Automatic annotation (TrEMBL), chains A, B:
<dbReference type="GO" id="GO:0045944">
    <property type="term" value="P:positive regulation of transcription by RNA polymerase II"/>
</dbReference>
<dbReference type="Pfam" id="PF00319">
    <property type="entry name" value="SRF-TF"/>
</dbReference>
<dbReference type="InterPro" id="IPR002100">
    <property type="entry name" value="TF_MADSbox"/>
</dbReference>
<keyword id="KW-0238">DNA-binding</keyword>
<protein>
    <recommendedName>
        <fullName>MADS-box domain-containing protein</fullName>
    </recommendedName>
</protein>
<dbReference type="InterPro" id="IPR033896">
    <property type="entry name" value="MEF2-like_N"/>
</dbReference>
<keyword id="KW-0804">Transcription</keyword>
<dbReference type="GO" id="GO:0046983">
    <property type="term" value="F:protein dimerization activity"/>
</dbReference>
<keyword id="KW-0805">Transcription regulation</keyword>
<feature type="coiled-coil region">
    <location>
        <begin position="104"/>
        <end position="135"/>
    </location>
</feature>
<feature type="domain" description="MADS-box">
    <location>
        <begin position="12"/>
        <end position="72"/>
    </location>
</feature>
<dbReference type="GO" id="GO:0000978">
    <property type="term" value="F:RNA polymerase II cis-regulatory region sequence-specific DNA binding"/>
</dbReference>
<dbReference type="GO" id="GO:0000981">
    <property type="term" value="F:DNA-binding transcription factor activity, RNA polymerase II-specific"/>
</dbReference>
<dbReference type="GO" id="GO:0005634">
    <property type="term" value="C:nucleus"/>
</dbReference>
<dbReference type="InterPro" id="IPR036879">
    <property type="entry name" value="TF_MADSbox_sf"/>
</dbReference>
<keyword id="KW-0175">Coiled coil</keyword>
<keyword id="KW-0539">Nucleus</keyword>
Amino acid sequence: MVILRKLPKRTQGRKRIEIKKLENLNNKQVTFSKRRSGIFKKAAELSVLCGAEVGVIVFSTAGKVFCYGHPNVETVLDCYCSGVAPPAVFDDTAGDQNPNRVPMAEFNKEYMEAIKELEEQKRRVVEVKEEVRMKKVVGGCGERFWWEDESVDLDVLDVQEVEHYLMSLEDVRKKVAARLHEVRILNGTLTPGALPPVPAVHRLCHMPMMTTGFGAQGGQFGGGYHGFGV
Amino acid sequence: MVILRKLPKRTQGRKRIEIKKLENLNNKQVTFSKRRSGIFKKAAELSVLCGAEVGVIVFSTAGKVFCYGHPNVETVLDCYCSGVAPPAVFDDTAGDQNPNRVPMAEFNKEYMEAIKELEEQKRRVVEVKEEVRMKKVVGGCGERFWWEDESVDLDVLDVQEVEHYLMSLEDVRKKVAARLHEVRILNGTLTPGALPPVPAVHRLCHMPMMTTGFGAQGGQFGGGYHGFGV
DNA sequence: GGTGCTATGGTTAGGAA
DNA sequence: ATTCCTAACCATAGCAC
């Protein structure tokens, strides 16, 4: 008969912690590192299991950025920012049972309608700009813009106007950006593939500074993982 | 003595699954839903524990978008897109040892400069619009816009112009949006808290279709969670 | 900042509502 | 598509490198 001698416990094992700001700096760093990669792993699993597009961005308090994305962060962000469905729905070749899949032809139709709307949008922008100029004169606030003038009642009217202005701007930007992307594909500047339908131009400035593989499962996940200094 | 009768097992309990595309549609949907909220919860915990800024975006294969962010998705995306350090760097009260922290005064100075630049940006937009109108007349393509006219050489010049136009639009939008946000805080429409310095107004066009609280811990986390149809 | 080691605590697959 | 339930599975807190 073998005597089972209970070895002295080398660790306390996991202990329950309260979800509140960790005060110990070193502890915080370790936890950050572990949980961050935990989330990235979960994100990768989600995308594989469910065919979802996932993007995760994490800023540490030290100001570093870490991100994970499937198929990659930029694509997911671009889809989100442009309000356009992810590339998969435009893919007619992938004959899966996605009920929301939009045939390319239909998408083109929608796109043409959007373009038709563009002219009116641009006109509206000019209108609002005209209003701005009017207000500046009427308000007589010299160097400042009308929305900087606190004497103007900003409670309802002006805020809505600014919102309106912003919406117009954004609509125009979105549609022009969409067209620009098509043009680029036509020009061969971009390859058609699973690329963002609407490039988010304001993001072109990033410089990736390091790139690591995704260790856990030997890189079976499609997503990329990289961090770069700020 | 109480006789402990083993009740018949109502479930098999959790079973190990392989990380590969789930074929059963219903199964996939359930897993997607559960794991998605699991990730959001993890993200919330990470931000609370480690003071990190986290943003998560998930597209389902059905084309729906779900996102979580602390302090909110827009802020994280804006920081990522602009390459600017996260909002915590603007927080003078939190006297932590963040080397990237920017004093509030300095930020205000930068902001004023940005506003000053606004007028010029707007002028540039008008200029480009003028050019557009010119091109339309010169090109003689009637109903279509100049960028739709394939007879126009889009290889270099026009693409750059459109890019320029987009940059201008985006700059203006961002700055007006920033001002709008301040105005809202002043009006009490928003509470100051840890809110986005630059609200991404171009995302207002999305229609939130459902909003759920963040169940687990009774909504102690600052982040928001919402999904909307595409 | 990252790793390897364990004993837990927590997440979640499966089933049903 | 979320919610409840249970029994596994698995992530991870606390240490030491």
